[in-house]
Amino acid sequence: MQVITVVGSNGAGSTTVSARLAIAVAAAAGGRVVVLDSDLGFGNLERAFSVIPSCGLADVLAGRCSLMDAMEATAWPGLRVVASGSHSDPTRVLSAAERLLLQQAVEDLRPDCDLLLIDTGISPNLFFFAGLADCPVLVMTPGQDTYGKHAALLTALAAKLPRIAVEVLVNRVEDHANGMEAFAVMAGLCSATIAADLHYLGALPFDGRLDLTRRTAHLAGTLMAPGPHEAVDQIAVRLLTPSAAPARGHGPLLR
User: Which of 77, 106, 125, 205 fits a 20 to 30 Å CA distance from 143?
Assistant: First the structure.
């Protein structure tokens, strides 16, 4: 089982990216995929799949159910979602006992899952979940008012997880060239100050239909609508099989 953690500052769109990547793996590779919403304060990942969960991560931490019990089936065969299960305390930090419980739950999941994709956003526990990952993915948006936030997040990640390798996906851009430009700016800002290995994963053009931060309606219909998904599939393949992937710095444009 591979573990991928998606992080991003507020408004960057990490939840939408998590949903699309999970769908791409489940649809293209036919794998057993679990996508977990770890944001106990403002998690809303279940909306992307039109799922009404009976329990979630908060219930797992409270001992009311297991991680397996918290998994809800979706419209995509092989893809299950675990909701956060609580919106009561956005500042909640997991205790040492809760971290151990989740580490064991992830280990227990390995025989029944090919990919565990964790959406953390900017939750207080993102460093713990990033530490669980084989591959952290940073979702960033371009703009002079956002580069500082992304650089601060990368600085914190590198401090907590020295020599970390981070895949960077640029969200809400006009085209591939804009994505490459934004990544170059970010890499330039960070190259002299943090010990992190940054790789350009790709770019996602702005699509208001998929903006979970500005909508409350279910988005399963939009995510399932016909459209060009080849580039999304390529991103998923690159994440799952990095040794066979093209040279970093040439990620495809997500559409």
Answer: 125
Could you state, in order of their start, the residue ranges of all structural domains in the chain? 2-137+211-244
CA 245 centroid distance within chain: 19
- On the CB side of 39, how many CA atoms lie within 13 Å of its CA? 21
* Cβ atoms 171, 13 nearer than 8 A: yes
Q: What residue ranges in 165-245 does DSSP mark as E strands?
A: 165-173, 197-205
Per-residue pLDDT of 53-95, as tens digits, reads: 989 999 999 999 999 999 999 988 899 999 998 766 778 889 9
Q: Which residues pair with 173 in a beta bridge?
A: 205
Partnered with residue 2 across adjacent β-strands are: 115
Answer for the pair 120, 39: CB distance below 8 angstroms, yes or no: yes
| Domain 2-137+211-244 class, CATH top level | alpha beta
Q: Which of 223, 36, 193 is nearest to 129 (CA)?
A: 36
Closest CA to 46 of 12, 10, 81, 88: 81
Kindly list the distances between the CA atom of residue 22 and the CA atoms of 36, 77, 135, 159, in Å, as whole numbers in the listed order: 10, 11, 14, 28
